[in-house]
Amino acid sequence: MQTSLAEWARNSAIGQEADEILRRCVHCGFCTATCPTYQVLGDELDSPRGRIYLIKEVLEGKEPTRSTQQHLDRCLTCRNCETTCPSGVEYGRLIDIGRHLVEQKVERPPAEQVQRKALRSGLNSSFFAPAYRVGQALRGWLPATLQRKVMARRDPGALPSTFSQPRQVLIMAGCVQPSMMPTIDAATIRVLNRIGIGTRVIQGASCCGALNFHLDDQDAALAQMRANIDAWLPWIESGKIEAIVMNASGCGATVVEYAHHLRHDPQYAVKAQKVVDHVRDVAQIVAPHTQLLREQIDIARLPRRPAFHPPCTLQHWQGLRPLSEKLLADLGLTLQPFNESHLCCGSAGAYSVLQPEISTTLRDRKLSHLQEARPDMVLSSNIGCIGHLQSGTDTPVRHWIEVVDEALRPLRG
Ligand code: SF4
Ligand code: SF4
């Protein structure tokens, strides 16, 4: 694609980066076939190619409008278009730049500003955990629509002491996961313990920054990234841990891009790269030990017909879908295939709150394809997708690590 950037864009680092990405696009339109918003809305401006064109216009000096902002807002940032694109267009990086530029030029209506601020501060606040517990306690009295959004509390169970294990890893503390589904972290700790890996959760690290980043506060997101690096780096440099383990693919996808986000920060660029070099999805940690784990699993306790929903942050951002599916099959799970497994379920961080209609349409579309496979359980690897899908079905939706944990035979002695 030919570009003719405005002078301010030609002279800025993000303008030059965007230009490189834009020039790769050949306008073939292959990406429209796998874009969830184009599939649902049928509007070229709600497709990757259309959004690329809108961002190009802004960089060439055209004033963005509220309509430009809304087309960019409707993007799920699922990056399905990147997987499909034959020209290697890094759409994810381009949409970050485009949104940032448009945000500076187009003021949102007051109600939207309040909603976004409330989401940023609410989900990042220390009050989230107690508030969520109150919601769980009152779940039975909540209206049906709200009840489906609050996960029933499950006992995380007893945790083994794992400090004496020869190998040690850090676990991402996350922001909402420990409150919403503490069973995921507990299961991770127990499963890793069975393969000789001890797990530590350390203070000082918190949300990966994704929420703030995608809710128009990139400065706050970068501050969270720096704080996490400061908390993790001493453990890496002391040699006490070998990896930082992610059991929510949404967080993992953000943390593996810390070095990119902090590339212009002279104090943090190198530190961020060191962190990125140590980040692993929990499936990557478990995969080399499949045989050892399989010997400890009671196959009769595994679901018989599970379907695996690969989150976009796992398959399109990190390319870990094949590894995850092979791991689950090697552990004895017979995964049921279903149509459109490449498409987003509509969760996408705060998207289900900000764009409820598109989000619900995509959820129901995903669930109808899943139900055709008649699964007795839906497995996934990201808390956002798990909660979102569960809100629309009575079929249990779980993180795969929980299912593996529950199938482990008790330790003797
Ligand atoms: S598939 Fe790639 S090259 Fe083709 S229009 Fe989409 S982004 Fe551009
Ligand atoms: S990131 Fe997803 S929703 Fe956004 S343009 Fe690409 S395919 Fe469409």
Report on this model:
It is a single chain. The chain has 413 residues and is of the alpha/beta class. Among the domains are: 99 residues, Fumarate Reductase Iron-sulfur Protein, Chain B, domain 2 (Orthogonal Bundle), CATH 1.10.1060; 112 residues, Rossmann fold. It has 25 helices and seven strands. The strands form two sheets. It has a four-stranded parallel sheet with strand order 2-1-3-4, with helices on both faces. A three-stranded parallel sheet has the order 5-6-7. Helix 24 links the parallel strand 6 and strand 7. Helix 2 crosses helix 7 and helix 14 crosses helix 17. It is globular and about 70 Å long. The N and C termini lie far apart (67 Å). The model has no long low-confidence stretch (mean pLDDT 92). The site of one iron/sulfur cluster (SF4) has 13 residues, from helix 3, helix 4 and helix 6.
Describe the protein's topology.
Blueprint: H1 7-10, H2 13-24, H3 36-41, H4 48-59, H5 66-73, H6 80-84, H7 91-105, H8 110-124, H9 128-137, H10 144-147, E1 167-171, H11 177-180, H12 182-194, E2 197-200, H13 210-214, H14 218-237, E3 243-246, H15 249-255, H16 258-261, H17 269-278, E4 279-281, H18 282-286, H19 290-294, E5 306-308, H20 312-315, H21 321-330, H22 351-354, H23 356-372, E6 377-380, H24 383-390, E7 397-399, H25 400-407
Parallel strand pairs: 1-2, 1-3, 3-4, 5-6, 6-7
Residues 35-37, 48, 51, 75-81, 91 line the site of one iron/sulfur cluster (SF4).
